[in-house]
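Dear support,

I submitted the protein below through the web form. The confirmation email said the job was done, but the results page showed an empty box. After a refresh the structure appeared. I'm attaching both so you can tell me whether what I see now is the final result or a partial one.
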Amino acid sequence: MGVIKNQDIYLVMHRSLSMVDKEITEHGKEVGYILYKMLVSQNKYFLQELIDYTTIGVLHDIGLYKSPDQETIHREETKNVWKHSIYGFLFLKYFSPLGNKAEIVLYHHLDYSKYQLINSAHIEVAEYLAFADKLDTFMRSSNEDRDAEFFAKQSGVRFSERAKQVFLNAEKKYQIFENIRTGAYEEELAALLRKKLTSEEQKRNFLEMLIYTIDFRSEHTVVHSLATTTFAVEIAKLMHLPAADIYNIYYGALLHDIGKLVTPVEILESPRRLNEDEMRIMQEHVVNSEKILRGTIDDTVLEIAIRHHEKLDGSGYHRGLKGEDLTIPQRIVAVADIISALYGKRSYKDSFDIERIKEILMADSDAGKLCPEVVGYAVRNMKWLVRNFEKKKEKTIGNYILIKEQYEEIYNKFKQFELEEEGQNEVPIKY
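What the results page shows now:
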C-alpha cells in the first residue's frame, strides 16, 4: 500500500503552498536551490542530507503563510523577521518529519555577528541558508531599495564571509543566477526532491504537515480535519472494514479539506453563518482539493477526499453524485464530516450535544441523504466516538499550547538580541 509516491510529495507540497501565496513559494524554491548548490559544491554531504537541507531551504519561510496579508516578501524579510522565523521553526519542529533540523529556520535572520550565542549542530548550514535568503531577497527587491555595496559592507556582520565565498565558488561552477533567470533550476530542484528516501511514516508526516498548515489560516479547520479523520476511522473499525479500506479512509479524511488552504480566512473564521455568496466560495474548497491532489495521491484516496459533500439523493456537491456512485468509505467520511461539524464549537454556535447530533444524522438518513448503515453504526456508538476523539484531541491541542508558550519565550530572547550591544549576552542558547 502507498497513498503517495516519493516523487509526488514535493509536487503536492508545491501545489498547495503556491495556491496560498505564490510569491512566498517562489522565494522558497529559489532559496532552496541556492542553498542546494552551495552545499553540493562542497562535496561533503550525503544525498539524504542534501535533500533534507534543501527541503528546509524551500520551507524556510513557511511561517509567513500564517499572515496572509503581507505587502511583499521584501518588507517581511527585512522589517519583521522574528515572528515568521520562530513560528516556522516551531511548526517544522512539532509538525514535520524534519524536526531535528528545524532550528536552521530559527536562525536564518539572526545576524552572523551574534552567532557566538548559538549552540547548534547545524550552524554551517544555517550560515548558508541565511546568505541564500538575503541574496534572493536582495535580487527580488526593487532597484531603489538595493544597496550596491550591501554584500561588501555586511560580510562578517549580517552574514558570514565563508558563506559568501562558498556561494561565489558555487556560482562559478553551476551558473546559479542563470539557471534561476531561465527557470531551469525548477526541474533540477524537483528532480532532487523526488529522490527523497521516505518511509510510509514520513510520508504520512508530510501530509499531516500540510493539513496543519491550514492552521496558518484557521485553527478551527485543522481541529475539524483531525476530528473527521478520527470519527471516520473509528466508524470504519466498528463496521469491520478491511485494513486497506481503513488505510484509505484515514488519508481521504485527513486530506478532505486541504482545499481550504485557498479559502479566504474571513470565510473560514466567519463569526456568523455564511450567506449564499460566501457559501459558494466555501464550496469551492472541494474543487481546490482536487486541483492540489489530482495525479499525486492514490485515486481511491482522492475520491474519498473530494466526495465528502455528496449525498445519496444527488443533492450534494460538487458533482451531484448519487448513492450508486458512492462507496462505503466515501459514505463514512461524509458522515464523519457532519459529526465533526456538529460537534465542533464556533463563534456563532455551541457544540451540539450527542442526542442532537444523533437526531440530525437520523433525519438526513431518513431523507435519503446519508447512508443508513453508516449512520446506524455512528448513532449507536456516538458516546464512544466522542469520548475517543476527546482523548486524541488532547495531544494536538497540547502541541498548539506548547508552540504558543515557546513562541513567546523565543521571541522575547531574539528581540533582546536586537536591543543589546553585541557581546553583552554571553550565554549560548539552543532550542
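Response: this is the final, complete result; the empty box was a page-load delay. The domain at 7-194 is CATH 1.10.3210 (Hypothetical protein af1432).
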